[in-house]
Amino acid sequence: MPGWGDGWGTEEWGGGTPPPFGENPPAIVYKSPAPNATNIAVDTTVAVVFTDVDGDLDATTIKLWVNGVEAYNATVGFLNGFVGQVTTLGTLVTVQFTNPLGWDYNALIEVQGFAADTTGKIVNEIWSWRTQANPRCYDGLTPLAIETALQQPLNRFLELEVVRQNLFDHVLNITNIHISQRLNKAARVIYQRAYSTDLSTLLNLFLTRNAAALEKTVCEQRRTLEIDRALVPINKRIRAGIDSLLNERFITSEYTASFNDYLDSTLYNYRVSLAANLVIVAKAIELEDE
């Protein structure tokens, strides 16, 4: 999974032989948003990854609470209006969930995660993060040059044209505003999603990051989970688009590996960020060709 470095080797046990079965308690090895993070979007998806280096995590014991309200219990699923999914990859169990009503602005969100292993050892952690203040909404009147260009079809990377159109069709939850403002706002969402993860380092080869464009919120944007669901049916097109960029030598095999890791990630925001990065890179390449 992207973002965890090189994984866990024997160095985690001081370079010796891994400990015997059952010696270690389970652990929470990934939290998103990160503890003590601030200015978190009100539509953010919470992701928590549980594991046990001994391989004896009892996934049926996993529970999560938000501000004291139970959000997930492995024996019954998601509770109290929270929605999400659970995925297992090897010894890693990832629980992702969101609040369909959105988090309140400038709110302190406290998350508690619990799990036990088959020997009875537990992990029970509490952490918190704060959502963004009531935002300044982007009015859709001052698009960047790349945002204007994104509104035109891709002519060279046809697989990614399907992805570009899908994003424009699904990143906003409104249709009753002037077409130019709607397109500008959709393009701004794509731009901001691209820069929401470390994958955006690729964009440095083609664009200058515009900090001001990343500050204002597109208040009409859909939640990450909803955008991701719209992208799932075209995953094959996304992978084909990755291959087309590699085949024409616009990206290296290292970037291709990262792209595929993001596409295969269990985190919604990684997959959405990947799609946004791909269409921006493709459009930037086409602009250089003109």
Summarize the structure.
This protein is of the alpha+beta class.
List the helices and strands and how they pair.
Blueprint (H helix, E strand, L loop, with lengths): L26 E6 L13 E6 L5 E10 L2 E5 L3 E2 L4 E7 L2 E7 L9 E10 L4 E9 L14 H6 L7 H13 L8 H16 L16 H5 L8 H8 L3 H13 L5 H12 L3 H22 L1
Antiparallel strand pairs: 1-2, 2-7, 3-4, 3-8, 4-5, 6-7, 8-9
Helix pairs in contact: 2-5, 2-6, 2-8, 3-8, 5-8, 6-7, 7-8
Task: Describe what you observe in this structure.
The chain folds into two domains: 121 residues, Sandwich (Immunoglobulin-like), CATH 2.60.40.3780; 145 residues, no CATH class. It is of the alpha+beta class. Strand 8 and strand 9 form a beta hairpin. The chain is built from eight helices and nine strands. Strands 5-4-3-8-9 form a five-stranded antiparallel sheet, with no helix packed on it. It has a four-stranded antiparallel sheet with strand order 1-2-7-6, with no helix packed on it. Helix content is 33%, strand content 21%.
Q: Keyphrases for this structure?
A:
290 residues; alpha+beta; Immunoglobulin-like; 2 domains; 5-stranded antiparallel β-sheet; 4-stranded antiparallel β-sheet; 8 helices; globular; disordered N terminus
Number of domains: 2
Number of helices: 8
Structural class based on helices, strands and sheet pairing? alpha+beta
Helix percent band: 25-40%
H/E element order = EEEEEEEEEHHHHHHHH
Main β-sheet, spatial strand arrangement: 5-4-3-8-9
Please report the total strand number as a whole number: 9
Output mean pLDDT.
Answer: 87
Distance from first to last alpha carbon: 37 Å
Overall morphology: globular
Largest sheet: 5 strands, antiparallel
